[in-house]
Amino acid sequence: YLLMPSTIRFTLLDANLGNIFPSCIKYKNNLCHIKVFKRLKQNIAKLKPDIITLQEMLAPWQCFGSNETNSDKICSYNIKNPVRELLGKDYTIVGNARNEFTYIAVHKKFGYIKGIPLGAYTTTSRISPMIGACDNDFLVMAVTVQTHFQETFDVVNVHLPSKKVRAPCRTWLIRSIFEKLPFMKEPLIQSKNVIIVGDFNFDPWRENGEVIQEWNKYFKKGWAGRPLRYISGIVEKNPPYKTHHNKIIIRTFDFAVSNFIEDGYLKVLGQSPGTTRLDGGQGCDHMALYGNLGFKSRSTFRRLITRFKKLLGEI
Fold first, then answer.
1. What is the pLDDT of residues 130-175, one digit of tens each?
2. Is 278 exposed, middle or buried (0-12, 13-18, 19+ CB in 10 A)?
């Protein structure tokens, strides 16, 4: 009985918080309106996800020296670290070291981000390398998550440029997830278990072309000897619910895959039945993904109890 595997369950939220409002151009169309910020903060607090991945978040440096006087903008308020203010003190938060537009956060009650003090805010250089002639504000970042039950897996946060950009720029970022490219010590994935999630800016179910072919090549190959499978999109509905907010063009640009998640999937907030949009109905041009996921733990029952008792003394 003590050697029987148990299921570890957790919730994951993925959200592109950007927009195409002209009023946010000077902030690179990242989240910039205070009313949207407040609605997002309230709804994230209600969901209380164990893991969060964000794209197009307002970076701390974007408010420095902006002299913003418009009270509709986040930067007109004395918020030194917008992502910390958005998520609260219960998360360990890591942003990418290049521009701090993308983040991965882990709730302190669920686990750690390996190498980062519990509850800290920092940045990581574990990101895709730059390539000339590309918009290097778009990138892929990764961290290793360690649960309080000593299970580890990688979370890869993807933000690819749109299809208007040359295909090599997009395939470069896809390859960096799985392969050691120039200026990289190793692929972004460093664990046997992985979740890859984010805004891919392509729809693998409704589009085709060079970038889709590149993605499908790695998807079919899998990782660490195990197949990748979708944990959003087509596993919920065929064809999938849209995640890009456009009444004319229906696209599922935001999705997730994994090689170890065995149960559960991510729903599209505001599209899946019984869900509401993370932004309260308007403000972001992508729909967020949220769901409850599970995988089998290899830890013994005794090890789980020992770790849980230790945890009670830490938090």
1. 988 899 999 999 999 999 988 999 999 999 998 777 788 999 999 9
2. buried
